[in-house]
TrEMBL record:
This is Uncharacterized protein. It comes from Daucus carota subsp. sativus. InterPro entries: DUF707 (IPR007877). The chain crosses the membrane at residues 59-82. It holds the Pfam family DUF707. It comes from the Eukaryota.
Length: 407
């Protein structure tokens, strides 16, 4: 056996190697965080990010470390990442071409060719409402405002009554879902997954107690497109509506408003340079309208077990696809009346008939809503604390934008 020289590392060489190893670990950690931030918006896309997006960081790391081990590790990370977003969970064993990730609410015939949609037809949107039999007349007036060629209608029946709606012509083409005593947010979380409603340009997730005599949906959509509103609601007629927040009040003589310039109902004073709720950047939840992109974000924020969704409106800015002070607003020229009927948990007549010792159902629902609000806000704080990679997008978009304070 030939003699072989064994090279023993000096202390200086050992220290240098240790520093190089630590640099490699830190660099990989940094690259992982950068890749996460750069590509977090691609989670729900069919196509994976292009390797070129990662090339600069990867070779920057190679330059710093200069080790073959990092070349291998880098390639493994990139390949693993790309494969992760190329395949949906559960579809790994299927050929890519057979995987259908999205769906819709379009009904199909039991036999014969399907009715082909006119390619020149306008974009389709969705109207979804939680409804009860006692509000049939008002719901009918709302649905008639949404033309068949432009909208799919989906009704969530919280009282379990479905057949009594068959006397309306449009009922046979509507999607009916029934579950006793559930809120529209319970239904929305379970039946309006973004991959199911991805074909619809806008999602109108409305309450049943809205007066629509002064509302035209075609003009409304034209306005929110023109104004670039990702999340919106029609203004509320101040003289006839139950108002909870001044941001929702219809402003006379304007088409759209994005902020208020007076003291809010909660006592907060709003100024032209205010950038936070309750002054700007949000709408209430009785008649919200979401773009396709914003709904994908909002759906993920809805908590599965918090069915009243209190607190969700205060965080809508995170789903505004940009500056919330510009991309969220109230349409004044197309407005509605919010009657504020106590339909959830019973009607006003039911409360009058309740036995003296029975709890007031409406009050109990409100108490539960407050409990859920506190739970949601605590979860939000904990999520921020636990997610080391998260960067608050509102701070970035609002500090880097000049914004508009004239509407």
């Amino acid at each position: 056996m030939k003699n072989s020289k064994v090279h023993h590392l000096s202390r200086l060489e050992q220290s240098s190697f240790q520093l190089l190893f630590l640099a490699a670990v830190r660099t990989l950690d940094t690259l992982e965080k950068k890749w996460y931030k750069k590509t977090s918006s691609l989670v729900n896309q069919d196509t994976p990010p292009k390797p070129e997006v990662l090339k600069v960081d990867r070779f920057g790391g190679l330059f710093l470390i200069g080790g073959v081990s990092l070349v291998i590790a880098s390639k493994v990370v990139v390949i693993t990442y790309i494969n992760k977003y190329r395949r949906s969970d559960g579809s790994e064993s299927l050929p890519k071409g057979i995987v259908t990730r999205t769906s819709n609410l379009e009904m199909r015939p039991l036999w014969g060719p399907p009715n082909k949609r006119n390619p020149k037809a306008p974009t389709i949107s969705l109207l979804a409402m939680a409804v009860g039999q006692k509000q049939k007349t008002n719901v009918n007036e709302i649905v008639k405002k949404f033309p068949e060629e432009n909208f799919v209608v989906m009704l969530f029946h919280y009282d379990g009554v479905v057949d009594d709606w068959n006397d309306f012509e449009w009922s046979s083409r509507a999607i009916h879902v029934s579950a006793f005593h559930q809120t529209k947010w319970w239904f929305a979380k379970r039946f309006l997954h973004p991959d199911i409603v991805s074909e619809y340009a806008y999602i109108f997730l409305w309450d049943e107690d809205l007066g629509v005599a002064n509302f035209h949906v075609g003009r409304y959509i034209s306005i929110i497109k023109e104004e670039g509103l990702q999340i919106s609601q029609p203004g509320l007629d101040l003289t006839k509506s139950e108002i909870h927040h001044r941001i929702t009040e219809r402003q006379n003589g304007t088409k759209v408003h994005r902020r208020i310039y007076k003291r809010s109902i909660s006592g907060v004073m709003c100024y032209p340079n205010s950038t936070d709720i309750p002054c700007t950047g949000w709408v209430e939840m009785m008649a919200p309208v979401f773009s396709r992109a914003s709904w994908r974000c909002v759906w993920h924020m809805i908590q599965n077990d918090l069915i009243h969704a209190w607190g969700l409106d205060m965080q809508l800015g995170y789903c505004a696809q940009g500056n919330r002070t510009q991309n969220i607003g109230v349409v004044d020229s197309e407005y509605v009346v919010h009657e504020g009927l106590p339909t959830l948990g019973g009607t006003a007549g039911d409360k009058a008939k309740s036995a003296p010792r029975q709890p007031n159902i409406r009050d109990e629902v409100r108490k539960q809503s407050v409990v859920e609000l506190n739970i949601f806000m605590n979860r939000w704080k904990n999520a921020i604390r636990e997610d080391e990679c998260w960067v608050d997008p509102l701070q970035t978009t609002e500090h880097n934008s000049t914004g508009r304070v004239d509407s």
